[in-house]
Amino acid sequence: MLHRLNEVGLADIVEKLDACQRLSFDDGVRLFECPDLLALGWLANREREKRHDGRTYYNFNIRLEATNVCVASCLFCSFARLRPGDPGSYTMSLEQAWDKLRERAHQPLTEIHVVNGLHPDLPFDYYLDMLRGFKRIRPGIHLKCFTAVEIAFFADLYKMSDEQVLRELQAAGLDSLPGGGAEIFAERVRRKICHDKCGADRYLAIHRTAHALGMRTNVTMLYGHIETHEERVDHMLRARALQDETGGLQAFIPLAFHPDNNQMRKLPAPSATETLRVHAVSRLMLDNIPHVKAFWIATGVDVAQLSLWFGVDDLDGTVQEEKIYHMAGARTPEAMTTTAIRRLIRAAGRDPVERDTLYNVVIGPESPDDAPVLVQ
Ligand code: SF4
């Protein structure tokens, strides 16, 4: 494969990686323009194996979107409804939210992942009580809740600082932040696709603050719409710079744009090859972020499986009840059993490892694939 990388003019990048040198902005753009996808994947896989060998992580989690009422108007969003009472809008009562966890008392879940619309009328106590209730029902569960965009919204709505919001949520049980809301950091793109929500600098500052408070977080990147290769690389480098400062990022998660039922429906969805390329370049550019995750709900199960040879070492988890992507036309299942995930990883020639949110091993690769409890 090295001769193919030479042929496409990437020998210098191979040399840098061999010498453990960091890739530059220009290197990243060249990687996106490399015509040989398999050579690019081979290189990304080499970096993946340096860190993780064949280990491929997933977790036993549940996804919860407690409300889709949202005052923002992101063009790519098919999930949000502007006002309470608008057709298709919903807001769960706290009991309904807690029931989602109670109903799964038989499942060895390790994480709840909560993201919501930006609801203008709910009191802060709604969110604090939600977290406290989850911990009451299952004290050991990890609460990965509220994007940085939600944290910024809470701070503005309830007239608090971002840090105060994070501290109060943490005291109520918040353990970490998911990476949603990053979209593309470049101002040109944000102005066009998500002009009325928290900007890139504040998003990154909130993650910085969360890290200082001892929480771990992830970063996402929404790709396949109007962004350029340069803007993707810029996005990655901003995440890399934050990680140099804090070391608090666990995973980088490229998210494929889905065009159904939103204001960007004239654009095509990114192709499978584009998805593989984005994940591969992410692995190569982000030398300091341990994990690159393919969110199988967004990429499709088959492409997520292929991505395990293109730099990806994590497939998220069982998910269960995802709404945001399915309202945007995702045709993936809404849940996978842990057995299905393990078999999918094994069939790709990789070693399945169930992890918790902080990447502690729950079930190692040596366990048989039908041992874990099935999602019912
Ligand atoms: S992406 Fe999030 S912030 Fe934007 S409209 Fe949808 S729910 Fe609201």
Account of the 3D structure:
With 376 residues, the protein is of the alpha/beta class. Helix 5 links the parallel strand 2 and strand 3. Helix 3 packs across helix 11. The chain is globular, with a radius of gyration of 20 Å. The C terminus is likely disordered. It binds iron/sulfur cluster (SF4). The site of iron/sulfur cluster has 12 residues, from loops.
Can you give keywords for this protein?
alpha/beta; 4-stranded mixed sheet; 4-stranded parallel sheet; 15 helices; globular; disordered C terminus; binds iron/sulfur cluster
How much helical structure, as a percent, in the residues? 40-55%
Q: Major β-sheet, in short?
A: 4 strands, mixed
- Low-pLDDT stretches: 372-376
> What oligomeric state do the depicted chains represent?
single chain
The end-to-end distance, rounded to whole angstroms, is 44 Å
Structural class: alpha/beta
In DSSP terms (H or I, runs of 4 or more residues), the helix count works out at 15
Q: How many β strands by DSSP?
A: 11
Whole-number mean pLDDT: 93
H/E series: HHHHEEHEHEHHEHHEHEHEHHEHEE
Ions, cofactors and other bound molecules? iron/sulfur cluster
Radius of gyration: 20 Å
From the spread of the alpha carbons, the general shape counts as globular
Instruction: Bin the strand percentage.
Output: 5-15%
Question: How do the strands of the widest beta sheet line up side by side?
Answer: 9-1-10-11
